[in-house]
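User: Please predict the structure of the protein below. I'd like the answer in structure-token form so I can feed it into my own downstream comparison script.

Assistant: Understood. Taking the following sequence of 124 residues as input:
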Amino acid sequence: IKKAYRTKSLHHHPDKDRENPLAPALFREISKAYASLTEEGARKNFEKYGNPDGPVQTKVGIALHPAIVSSRSGRLTFLCCFFAVIIGVPLSVVCCLGGHGISANGVSGETLRIYHAVLGSDVS
């Protein structure tokens, strides 16, 4: 294991493999694999969490086009559109429904008519 680690780590070391932009990531993966194979604590973490470093937090984000994020006007336009959708869509739904045909309990008048038509004949 040690011989294979030394060979791979020398081959993919960021200082030795400068042309490869993935060399730092490969070197980290090789180091983690070696640690999980040789250290008992890292092995237990790998078996339990799938990572020799132990539990890690998940980073969540959204991908935006660089043109949106890079300029101030792009960010301002994005924020305006975002808030227009967040506020505009619910507001338009409320305005279109506008309480027309809604009972005091918030149930649609059409639903109440169907409910009473079906159950009204059975109840009486």
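That's the full token string. The chain is about 65% helix and 0% strand.
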